[in-house]
Amino acid sequence: MRMKRILAGTMALAALPLASAASEGERIQITGEVIDTWCYFSGVMGGPDAVTGSAHHTCALWCSAGGIPVGVLGDDGEVYMVLKMEGDPGSNGGDTQLTLASHEITADGMLYERDGINYLVVAEVVEDMGITKLNHEDYGPVPSFAIPEPAE
Description:
By secondary structure, the protein is of the alpha+beta class. The chain has helices spanning 2-15, 37-42, 57-65, 95-100; strands at 26-36, 70-74, 79-84, 104-114, 117-128. The chain has a five-stranded mixed β-barrel. Strand 2 (70-74) and strand 3 (79-84) form a beta hairpin. It is globular, with a radius of gyration of 19 Å.
């Protein structure tokens, strides 16, 4: 009897429309800054100016190396969570993300939207403009101790 109720409940749920289904994906090109999503969304480091540009570069490196997903803060003000980046067999904390932390890039890839979140699979970094938001006065745009050594 209990199994029949479980089966009936499962069938009823299966019949409901999937409101949170993922989109099919759309090819886009986005320009924006590669950001540390933990600090950006949590507010742990302060407001928007504290978590972008050279002021946040060192922290962004540590978070990415520790496995925190990177995102692209688009010129449109939207955040695009990066699922995979060109050239990295893994994604979070890969060498590509470390070399692009705090850089403004133009990326070509597939956009997937689900539950109000933008997910981006980057096929190619079309342009890397470097760190364009210079808001770190103590050490200059990139402190020498913050430059990662890529694995080879």
